[in-house]
Specification:
The structure is a homodimer.
Chain A: H1 8-34, H2 41-48, H3 55-58, H4 62-85, H5 91-108, H6 110-119, H7 124-143, H8 152-172, H9 179-190, H10 195-202
Chain lengths: 223, 223
């Protein structure tokens, strides 16, 4: 072993992280193709090219790996959203920008996009990752008198339900351009922005999504 | 046989219709409790209290009965909506009234409500039954200059995704009153109605849903 190589323990850690990521990525792929029902452990391990027993070194069940795959991929995207919209001052721009980024990401990374559609808008991982962020951004708009929302939690639920529908429509109609802007305009109107201004805000130039340290992505399921 | 009794053939027809309805109702119940995955024929026939083989006299598979249960229950509700909002002149009132009726129905008839949530907003039956109605009502609002929608199909998809989310939220938070009005207000804003007017329209007194001939309901799965 030369000095350049990591010590055995950290090489082991890295190998474990890679196997875990392979299992998660295989799960995303299978769910994106077939939905969450009737997936069995051996399909995931075959897709990941590891022994069936290996699965249980990392996850306790199909439900467990589904939950982790959903939570980690969304949390990672949620953190990227936070960085990407943190410079924006207008709550309407933050709301529009965040929603557009998720739609764009889902349409560009179609495995994740179909995974997102197939787990459904009511999946707990959606509420635990994007939920608090959406609530925060909507509440800020209400507090600043920018949005008109009676029930922030219902608005979040409606926006996520609509998000899932918009992503599915974008994936099945790839010829339709600007799905992100059309969806954002509808969601801006939903929170009380007038149509002409909603069209304007939804069409703002959108900075690239700050997806974070590429070096860190090896173990992340969403890449 | 007295003259008051129906002839044998129509009694047979009636018995068949009842068995079919029992199978459909059992399917609604199982899906409402557990979602669509991992349901098997024997569970449906057990719930319906008929022999397992009987199932195949009426349906070819689980997918078949799910499709029929979704389509028939929604088509029946859709026809009731048409009758109930046909007197309304303002497209905003039609849109709001239809959406409020579906939410109210789903929260009152909870087996159907959970069935609706569990099959998902992207289910083809939703698009084939409520889809054309929603598209018609939104297009009328656009044509009359009442709504501001760039993409009617996307607005329909968003409204259905949001509907599923709103119903689930209403079912899991029964203490929240007026879910139908809050949802309708958000959906009126989404199509471009200003917040103050949206609040007003969403709170209009809503006539009872005209659920049709009660005599005809015996064979209908939604009752």
């Amino acid at each position: 072993m030369t000095e350049k190589q990591p010590p055995t323990s950290s090489r082991q850690e890295l190998r474990k992280a890679r196997t875990r990521a392979k299992l998660l990525r295989s799960t995303l792929k299978l769910v994106s193709e077939r939905g969450t029902s009737a997936i069995v452990v051996s399909e995931i391990t075959e897709e990941a090219d590891v022994g069936t027993g290996t699965f249980y070194n990392y996850f306790s069940s199909i439900d467990d790996i589904l939950e982790v795959a959903a939570h980690e991929s969304m949390e990672y995207l949620g953190a990227a959203l936070d960085r990407s919209v943190s410079q924006m001052e207008d709550p309407a721009e933050v709301w529009s920008g965040s929603l557009r980024h998720v739609v764009r990401y889902a349409l560009a990374e179609q495995v994740w996009g179909w995974f997102f559609v197939n787990i459904g808008a009511a999946h707990p991982a959606l509420m635990s990752t994007f939920g608090p962020r959406a609530r925060r951004d909507l509440q800020r708009g209400v507090d600043e008198g920018r949005f008109s929302i009676d029930d922030v939690d219902l608005a979040v639920a409606c926006a996520f339900g609509a998000l899932s529908a918009a992503v599915e429509r974008g994936l099945t109609n790839p010829e339709t351009a600007d799905t992100d802007q059309r969806y954002a305009k509808a969601m801006l109107q939903m929170v009380g922005i007038a149509p002409s201004e909603a069209a304007q805000v939804a069409a703002y130039p959108l900075p690239e999504l700050d997806i974070g340290d590429k070096e860190m992505l090896a173990a992340k399921p969403i890449i």
